[in-house]
Specification:
By secondary structure, the protein is α/β, with parallel strands linked by helices. The chain contains 17 helices and 18 strands.
């Protein structure tokens, strides 16, 4: 039991879950401020811990932000001492540490050359992770704060099978095959409505990303029908083809014909045993074949792997990293497994248990950097093993700009399809407005006109 007189119950719970899992509760006793000082009290298992900080000058929003930072820092120091456990990201509970660091630098609160030290002192973030954040800020290119520049995202929430770690609202093709054509009809209707918004608001589409799910689960004819409606002249046009067993020469020819420049092939591991265990219907050999075909067709290729998959030990993970580097994709992302509540793995995780996952991840990140890759985006998820992170890397100055725009939330992303979330960024006002489409395909089909109307309202048409 954790008791506190601060107002940050939710954030404290997010931090405490890393130490205790779900076997704890946070109770707010009362909120008390004495004159110009913040008084806080944290009680853990009956033991009192009190902190007394001067409140900073400034507006209430900034004051609250700093107060939350110090409350979480205090709780972290208490729990770290009690449990004799150090977290690599310290008291930071957010998903975008790079966005935090950038905002601190751009606001003038912290000099860029002091950001590593600041993250260590204010959040107890380890030197290694703070340095990683600093490197990413330096490597990120192409961030343009112009409200007339937008990215366009299309969601295909369908997969050939469901992975045990997945919590996305994504349907297996066999269960929704009868809805695919109707879904495409509605999707194209929304795309046409968005094209009208873009024209009338004089917006410029910078990057296009077709994601999911697994968009390449569609037939070649369906892909051509869909992509033929995405009539934007862009520098970067990416399609997720995550499952190699959905990639054919005919489909790649369609993608090339429709202007796609980059595809994602996501093996997650190069162990056939693990692939079977996590619910994949392909082998590592299928990955090799699909990758060779994509390169032959002239596509840039992004690849993802996951560290911490069921049953995998350090030797298997190291082999996956080395195989990935042998393939030498344009971009690669190293994910740490997130044990999400909506996944099958959350309820059946007896195969998990890598004790040194932090060390393994650190070694993997250093290995790919030593091979010439540079980190360029980073994000964290709830319930990640050991509260770690996902990091994207690039080589040869070939950055996937959509990944930066999406993760850093510096550019408007207009998103269509079931489960898609449009984020309209107002840089001058420093705010973001969101419009979420309904999550399920059948609901989307029934309510397509409502989704279009909400999007039009977001852009004041």
């Amino acid at each position: 039991m954790i008791k506190t007189n601060t107002e940050f119950q939710k954030e404290m719970e997010e931090l405490a879950v890393v130490f205790y899992g779900n076997d704890f509760s946070v109770e707010i006793v009362h909120n008390e401020e004495i004159y110009n000082k913040l008084y806080e009290k944290i009680v853990v298992n009956g033991e009192n811990f009190e902190f007394d900080y001067p409140l900073p000058e400034g507006n209430q929003l900034k004051t609250k932000s700093i107060r939350k930072r110090r409350v979480l820092y205090s709780l972290y120091m208490v729990l770290s001492k009690i449990e004799k456990k150090v977290l690599p990201w310290g008291s930071f509970t957010g998903i975008r540490p790079t966005a935090l660091a950038r905002n601190l630098i751009e606001s003038g609160e912290v000099k860029d050359y002091l950001i590593v030290e600041y993250l260590q002192n204010e959040y107890a973030i380890s030197y290694e992770k703070a340095l990683l954040v600093s490197k990413i800020l330096k490597n990120q290119k192409g961030i343009i704060r112009n409200d007339n520049l937008v990215d366009f995202y299309v969601n295909i929430p369908i997969c050939p099978s469901r992975c045990v770690y997945c919590s996305f609202i994504s349907s297996e093709l066999s269960k929704v095959n009868n809805l695919v054509e109707k879904y495409l009809d509605c999707l194209i209707k929304e795309i046409k409505a968005v094209r009208k918004i873009i024209t009338e608001k004089s917006l410029i589409v910078r990057n296009v990303y077709i994601g999911g799910g697994t968009p390449s689960v569609l037939t070649a004819e369906q892909l051509e029908r869909l992509l033929g409606e995405v009539k934007f002249s862009t520098n970067e046009f990416t399609v997720e083809c995550g499952r190699p067993d959905t990639i054919t020469e005919e489909k790649l020819d369609v993608l090339k014909k429709c202007g796609v420049t980059r595809i994602c092939i996501n093996p997650q591991t190069f162990s056939n045993l693990t692939l079977k265990r996590i619910g994949r219907k392909h082998t590592k050999e299928d990955v090799f074949s699909a990758y060779s075909l994509a390169v032959e067709k002239g596509f840039k290729v992004n690849m993802d792997i996951i560290i911490g998959l069921p049953g995998e030990k350090e030797f298997t993970i190291n082999k996956t990293i080395n195989t990935l580097l042998d393939l030498y994709p344009n971009n690669l992302t190293i994910h740490t497994l997130s044990l999400k509540r909506g996944s099958d793995l959350f309820f059946n995780n007896e195969c998990l248990g890598i004790n040194n996952i932090e060390k393994i991840l650190s070694k993997a990140e250093k290995t790919v950097m030593n091979a010439g890759y540079k980190p360029y985006y980073l994000y964290r998820q709830k319930y990640q093993l050991s509260s770690l992170e996902n990091v994207g890397f690039y080589r040869d100055n070939d950055i996937c700009q959509f990944n930066i725009d999406s993760m850093e939330e510096t550019s408007t992303i207009i998103a269509v399809g079931a489960g898609a979330i449009t984020k309209r960024v107002f840089n001058l006002e420093n705010k973001i407005e969101r419009q979420a489409n309904v999550k399920f395909i059948d609901d989307y089909i029934k309510r397509i006109d409502e989704m279009i109307a909400k999007k039009q309202n977001l852009f004041n048409l």
